[in-house]
Design brief:
Distance between the termini: 42 Å
Structural class: alpha+beta
Strand content: 15-25%
Strand order of the largest sheet: 1-2-3
Largest sheet: 3 strands, antiparallel
Mean pLDDT: 76
Helix content: 25-40%
Number of strands: 5
Order of helices and strands: EHEEEHHEH
């Protein structure tokens, strides 16, 4: 089973380029996640959803229910710090970010990437 390991080595170092990556553990092995993890800020428009039996291990169904687009399952995963989208338990409370916060976060990320690429 894959687990998230709190990365003590880089978390306290504001200047470390590794602080935005999660450390993943599987058995005795661990590695840094290559996906650049960003936060989706919590807003008053967010919805909290308790996972029923029918949606267990199916973030795509939850995304379809709230966004009318199953391909946005990753938004729910990022907002809830879920590493494995196939491990979502019955009764788990999920934060469903509002559509406006998704686009705001994405725009902010794109603006940062543009600034990072300027010389």
């Amino acid at each position: 089973m894959i687990t998230y390991i709190k990365n003590q080595n880089y978390e306290d170092q504001d200047q470390s380029r590794y602080k935005i990556y999660r450390q993943i553990g599987q058995g005795k092995d661990s590695y840094l996640e290559t996906f650049n993890q960003r936060e989706i800020p919590e807003t008053d428009e967010d919805i909290y959803y308790i996972v029923p039996q029918s949606d267990e291990n199916r973030l795509d169904l939850v995304a379809y229910r709230y966004y009318n687009d199953a391909s946005l399952w990753w938004v729910i995963a990022i907002a809830n710090k879920i590493i494995d989208p196939f491990v979502v338990s019955v009764g788990q409370v999920l934060r469903i970010p509002s559509v406006t916060s998704i686009y705001s976060s994405t725009n902010e990320i794109l603006q940062r990437r543009g600034a990072d690429n300027e010389y």
